[in-house]
From TrEMBL:
Listed name of the protein: Pseudouridine synthase RsuA/RluA-like domain-containing protein
Record InterPro entries: PsdUridine_synth_cat_dom_sf, PsdUridine_synth_RsuA/RluA, RsuA_PseudoU_synthase
Species annotation: Corethron hystrix
Gene3D superfamilies: Pseudouridine synthase
Residue stretches making up the Pseudouridine synthase RsuA/RluA-like domain: 26-196
Molecular function as annotated in GO: pseudouridine synthase activity; RNA binding
Amino acid sequence: DAKVELRTTGGNEGDRTESQKRRRRVVLLHKPRGYVSHHMPSIGNRDDRKYPSGLFLLTRRNLIGSAAIPLFQPGGKRIRNRTYAPAGRLDVDSTGLMIYSGCGVVARVVTSGLVDKEYIARVRPARPGFKWEEANIDRLKRGGAMLQGSKRALLPMKLKWDVKVKKEGHYNIHRPPPLRIVVREGQKRMIRRMCEEFLNMVVVRLHRVRVGPFSLEGIAEGKWRCATEEEIKILMSLEKNERETR
C-alpha cells in the first residue's frame, strides 16, 4: 500500500522513480520521408512494405545525448527495436516527430484524445482558379464535419495559416502559405483528407512538430533522443487530470 501511495502522490520520490523508468522507454525520432513508422513487414499496405522502418534509424550514431545501455542490442549499435512500438503513426510521405515506446501506459496516453498533435501542412490548390473563404477553415475549427467514408465526425481543432498573404481580400490561392494544424484525434490520413475535401487543397508536405509535451525542437532529421523526465511527468499529469474529472 505504501508503494502505491508513493506513486500516486505528486512531487514525491515515487513519482520521480516512475518517471525515470518511463523516460528510458520512450524515444523521439525525427522521421524523414521514405520511412514507415511500424517495424513489422506484414503491417500496413503492400506499398508500405518496400520502405524501411523508422526503427532502423534508432542507432547509437544517430542518438542525441546519452541513453541507458539496456536500450541497445548486444554490440551496442542499434536499439532493441522489438521492445518498442510506435505510439501513433506517420505515413511514409510524412515527416517529423515519431514516438516509439516500450511503456504501454505512455503509448496509451499519447494515442488518446488527451494529447495535442501539431502539424505544419504545405498545400496547393486541388484545381486551378479555385477561391474559398475563411468559412472553410472555421467549419473545421468548430468540429462536426464528416470525412467521406468516416463513421464519426471530426472533433474541434486549431487551424490557421502560418503567414497571411492576401490578394484582393483572399489569400493568394496560387501560392498559399503553410497551414498550422493542432488536432487530438488520428483518423487515417485525416489531415490530407480534410484539406482536400473541405478546403480543396492538396497536401504536398505534412510535418509533425509536436505531440503533447514532446517537441521536435533540437532533433535534426534522422536523429533521435530519449524523452526527458519532465516530459513524462507532464504527459502523465494529463491522464491523472482526466481521471480526476470523470
